[in-house]
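1st attempt posting a full record on here, be nice pls
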Amino acid sequence: MEQMINEQNVQTEKNMNAQATSNDRRENAGVKLLIISLLCLLLLVPWFFIRFTISERNSTESSAEQEVYSKWGGQQLVKGPAIRVSGTKDEGNFLLLPETLDITSDASCRSLNRGIYDFTVYDAEVVLKGHFIMPKNMPASQFNRLMLNCWNMEVELSSLKGLTDNPTVKIDGKELTPQDITFSDSRLMWRVNLNSLLDGGSLEYEITIKLRGSKSLNYLPTGNTTNVKMTSDCATPSFCGNFLPTERDVRNDGFDAEWKVLAINRSFSQIVTESKWRNMNLRGGYYLEGEDSGDDSFGVELRLPVEQYQQNERAVKYAYLIVLLTFAIVFFMELRRECPIHPVQYLLVGIAIMLFYTLLLSFSEHLSFLVAYIIATVMTVALLTFYLGGIMHDKKVGLAIGGVLTVCYIFIYILLQIESYALLVGSIGLFAVLAAAMAASRKVEWYKK
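the predicted structure (as tokens):
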């Protein structure tokens, strides 16, 4: 009888120990999850630091870009030609625009260096040809002012600093001397004789301008019919403004593009007041932003797309997905293999993942984004594979986690490249990750006795 009592006591003690062990296991798992959550919050500090660094580097590049462009020549807008007619203070001035405007331009790109940054600039030759006629709907008062005043023909550029040679001007086949051409602000001006125009004829012109600039080359469709033909050795053009080319041919060695714009397509007539003409300027972009002028300029952006900072900014947004996924895998492995992992080791894993984005930013400033991404991925995955295999005392586990991380980084790179479908593909990917986590959690005996 006494022996049976002793056996019962021993069994009771074992049950109590098992229950205590089970309680300890549940408590340890709960505490570990709480600690991991706190570590995720702690990793917000380096995450914000990395995002700030990306923004700061982007700002540094923009400052260097503005400095180079201000010395070389900024965005160019070819505005004109037009015949300016002066009036009284009450009447004001007006400008007569050409009946036809045919523009041919050839832009050659080159790279300028500023520190570690490369910027694309261009040299261009622009030829403007066409003729003026007297508009049939010209009011009598304006026609009389044409009869009584002196007239200037003018072409305006965004900045005369971009001129690389004296312009060549031919009026009715007669070439003007450089002394006949004057400069005021950003305008090229010369006197013209309008006798043939007033007699019902036409005034022919041909203007050749050699200039340099950066970012974009734009035109204003001042002709009643404006035709533009443009060629360049830039293989990555971005057509901008209010009118797209009617024809284009983009090749690896450059592009050809043609535009045709009619007076009915634009927001101003053949006779423009000086105040409205003055508002038709290129401001803060590729378009015209002036009072009642509409957005009537068009052209092409001539520079290599440099988007490493935008891609870094988009990539770092996925940092927490990698952190949470890695922590989840390590946590499940810890429970299944009963191999306790210290919170400091979790923290080191999180820091290694955050360091990936610093490596990516650093390498992408000197190499292409793809090469930088591959290097940062290989370094990070190799480090985590070696470290996790060591702390779990199983190289196969480390290799398995490294394989999962490699797939995750490949998936994120694909998301960065398919911006239009990033939300769709990302949502499907997150669903697959959640399904895998749920499947893995089923095999964990949370209340194992």
